[in-house]
Design a protein that fits this description.
Number of domains: 1
Structural class: alpha/beta
CATH class: Alpha Beta
Order of helices and strands: EHEHHEEHEHEEEHEHEH
Shape: globular
Radius of gyration: 17 Å
Number of helices: 8
Bound molecules: 6-phosphogluconic acid
Strand content: 15-25%
Largest sheet: 7 strands, parallel
Helix content: 25-40%
CATH architecture: 3-Layer(aba) Sandwich
CATH topology: Rossmann fold
């Protein structure tokens, strides 16, 4: 596993660097396997990337017909909810490009409304796991690229500190959260660490201490620390504000 940090000045430069890297990995994947499988992330930093990919320069470059689009995590909200990661990617990328193979997480069940019963979300986790195994024709799906962000509590995908999902032996976990944030579905470390390439997109001063604690101190309490694709590459694309404690 190789960790590589790419230093950028601004969040827009992070998006540009990520688009370049995705193009490189897409070409490799299509040449070798005829398909490019990517898991998208939620959050404000990936949104800049999606807008970049939908703009003319990259829209004309990518082999969209070879793309299979999945998600690294999703909230238990309706598809058109502003907090939906599907809604984010569809609004800023997928409705603008000719991707045909889109496999969303069916997390739009409502544990909160059904008295907190997580059964529907747990079934959605099992369903997505089976979908991936079928599409990849492999009991352990190996993504070409998995996009990740990192929250201000150190979570990545929807793997939160101290969550039972951190120890899950499944491919997809249902994540019961507190009242302030939506329940989620998330890919587990088994899938993240099987990927050929993981790309962290991180920007902003509020992430600087976390970036230092993960990359310099290897803080085991932070979920992002344990993303180490065994046979793959892990890129950390950082803006100056997020990277300034690394010097
Ligand atoms: C989610 C996201 C999450 C996100 C981080 C960073 O659904 O919560 O996938 O993991 O990537 O919270 O978000 P920002 O890029 O907005 O800081």
């Amino acid at each position: 596993m190789t960790d590589e940090v790419i230093f950028c000045e601004t969040p827009d430069d992070v998006a540009d660097a990520a688009a370049e890297l995705i193009f490189e990995k897409e070409k490799e994947a299509v040449a070798e396997r005829g398909v490019f499988r990517i898991a998208l992330a939620g959050g404000s930093t990936p949104k800049l990337l999606y807008e970049r990919l939908a703009a003319e320069e990259w829209r004309e470059e990518m082999s969209w017909e070879s793309w299979e689009v999945y998600w690294s995590d999703e909230r238990a909200v309706p598809l058109d909810h502003p907090e939906s990661n599907y809604h984010l990617a569809h609004s800023h990328l997928l409705k603008h490009v000719p991707v045909r193979n889109i496999f969303r997480m069916f997390s739009d069940v409502s544990p909160r409304l059904s008295g907190g019963n997580m059964g529907g979300l747990e079934q959605a986790a099992r369903d997505y796991q089976q979908l991936m195994i079928k599409q990849f024709a492999d009991p352990l799906p190996v993504f070409d690229v998995i996009l990740l962000g990192m929250g201000t509590d150190g979570h990545t995908a929807s793997l939160f500190p101290n969550s039972p999902a951190l120890q899950s032996d499944q491919l997809v976990a249902a994540v019961e959260t507190n009242q302030k944030i939506q329940h989620r579905l998330t890919l587990t470390y088994r899938v993240l660490n099987a990927a050929r390439t993981v790309i962290f997109l991180i920007a902003g001063e509020e992430k600087a201490e976390l970036v230092r604690d993960v990359l310099l101190n290897g803080d085991p309490s932070l979920p992002a620390t344990h993303v180490k694709p065994e046979g793959g590459e892990c890129y950390w694309i950082l803006d100056d504000a997020a990277a300034h404690l690394l010097e």
